[in-house]
C-alpha cells in the first residue's frame, strides 16, 4: 500500500470519529480522554478508582465497569498508567480480548520495558505503538504539545489524526519501540539535572538571606544569555558528534577550578555537594589524561558507552 493511500485511510478513520478507550485516569489519563472527547470520539474509560471518571462521564465518556469491558469497547486502546509493571498486571490477563486491537501505550518506563511490551503485544496479535508524552496534562491538545511515538510506522500513520488530538507536535521517531522512551528519558535527564542545579543555587543564596525571588532575574538572564545559547546550539551538538573538543571559549582547567570552588563553598555553607562529586572526578581525570585545554564536553567520551567501546 502506498504512503498516500495509508494517509487517506487515516483521514477517513479520523472523520469516522472511531471509538477509543482510555485505561488509566490519573492526572494525565484524564487529560488524554478529555482531548478525545473534544475531538468528538466516542470515548470509553476505565480506572481502578472509578470515581476519577465522573468528570469525564459528565463530558460524555462511557464508564466501563470492568477493564475487560473497556478493552472490548474500542478497536484503539490507549493506556496511561503509573508504571509498566501496573500495565502488565492489568493487561496480561486480557491478551485474547486485546488480540486484533491497537494498543497505544503512553505509560513511562524504560526503553527495555517498551521493547518487552512490544514483543508481548506481537505475540498476542496486538498492534502496538509505544509513546512518550513531553508535556504536562494542561498542555494536552495544544498545538505545541510534543509526543513521541515508536513502533510500526504504518500503524502510526493510520492513527496519526487521532493521536494529533493529544498534541500538535506529534512525532514518529523509529520502528524501534524503545526509542520514544529513550528520547523521553534523555530530555527528562536535562530537566532533572537543571532542576537540581537550580535548587542548589537557591540554597546557596538563602545562606545570605537572599530569596529565590530576588535571585530569579539573574538566574533567568544566566539561562537565557549563557546556558541556552551554549546547550541549544547545533555547534555544541556537532562538537560531541565529531569528538572535536578544541575550544576558544572555556576549557576543562577553568571549569574544574570553578566546580572545585562550588563544592568547597557548598561544604562551608553546609549544603550537600555530593551530586557534583562525580562531575568533578571526571574533570580531574581529563586533566590528568592531558586534556585540560579541551572543552568540558570531552566528558562525553567517558560517559557514553558507545565512545568507550569504540576506544577499547
Ligand atoms: N502528569 C504528567 O505531567 C505526566 C507527563 C508526562 C508523562 N506522564 C506519564 O503518564 C503516566 C501517568 O501519569 P499521571 O500523572 O496520570 O499519574 P497519576 O495521576 O499518579 O495516575 C496514575 C494512574 O495509574 C493507576 N494505577 C497506579 N497503580 C495501579 C494499580 N496497582 N492498579 C491499577 N491502576 C493503578 C492509577 O489508578 P488510581 O487512580 O486508581 O490510583 C492512575 O490511573 C505516567 O507513566 C507518567 O510518567 C505524566
UniProtKB/TrEMBL annotation:
Coiled coil: none annotated. Residues 20-172 form the 6-phosphogluconate dehydrogenase NADP-binding domain. One of its GO terms (molecular function) is NADP binding. Residues 176-303 form the NADPH-dependent reductive aminase-like C-terminal domain. It comes from the Bacteria. PANTHER family: CYTOKINE-LIKE NUCLEAR FACTOR N-PAC, OXIDOREDUCTASE GLYR1-RELATED. This is 3-hydroxyisobutyrate dehydrogenase. The gene is mmsB.
Amino acid at each position: 500500500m502506498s504512503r498516500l493511500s495509508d494517509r487517506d485511510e487515516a483521514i477517513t478513520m479520523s472523520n469516522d470519529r472511531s471509538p477509543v478507550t482510555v485505561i488509566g485516569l490519573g492526572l494525565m489519563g484524564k487529560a488524554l480522554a478529555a482531548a478525545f472527547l473534544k475531538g468528538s470520539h466516542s470515548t470509553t474509560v476505565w480506572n481502578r478508582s472509578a470515581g476519577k471518571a465522573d468528570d469525564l462521564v459528565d463530558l460524555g465518556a462511557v464508564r466501563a465497569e470492568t477493564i475487560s469491558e473497556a478493552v472490548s469497547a474500542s478497536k484503539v486502546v490507549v493506556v496511561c498508567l503509573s508504571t509498566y509493571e501496573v500495565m502488565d498486571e492489568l493487561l496480561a490477563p486480557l491478551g485474547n480480548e486485546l488480540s486484533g486491537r491497537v494498543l497505544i501505550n503512553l505509560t513511562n518506563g524504560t526503553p527495555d520495558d517498551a521493547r518487552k511490551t512490544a514483543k508481548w503485544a506481537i505475540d498476542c496479535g496486538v498492534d502496538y505503538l509505544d509513546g512518550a508524552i513531553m508535556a504536562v496534562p494542561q498542555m494536552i491538545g495544544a498545538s505545541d504539545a510534543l509526543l513521541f511515538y515508536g513502533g510500526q510506522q504504518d500503524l502510526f500513520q493510520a492513527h496519526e489524526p487521532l493521536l494529533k488530538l493529544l498534541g500538535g507536535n506529534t512525532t514518529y521517531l523509529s520502528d524501534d519501540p524503545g526509542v520514544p522512551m529513550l528520547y523521553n528519558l534523555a530530555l527528562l535527564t536535562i530537566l532533572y539535572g537543571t532542576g537540581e542545579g537550580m535548587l542548589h543555587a537557591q540554597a546557596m543564596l538563602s545562606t545570605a538571606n537572599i530569596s529565590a525571588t530576588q535571585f530569579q532575574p539573574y538566574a533567568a538572564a544566566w539561562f537565557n544569555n549563557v546556558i541556552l545559547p551554549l546547550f541549544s546550539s547545533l555547534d555544541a551538538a556537532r562538537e560531541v558528534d565529531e569528538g572535536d573538543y578544541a575550544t576558544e571559549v572555556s576549557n576543562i582547567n577553568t571549569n574544574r577550578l570553578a566546580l572545585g570552588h562550588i563544592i568547597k563553598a557548598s561544604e562551608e555553607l553546609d549544603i550537600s555537594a555530593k551530586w557534583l562529586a562525580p562531575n568533578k572526578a571526571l574533570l580531574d581525570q581529563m586533566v590528568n589524561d592531558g586534556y585540560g585545554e579541551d572543552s568540558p564536553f570531552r566528558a562525553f567520551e567517558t560517559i557514553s558507552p558507545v565512545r568507550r567501546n569504540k576506544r577499547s
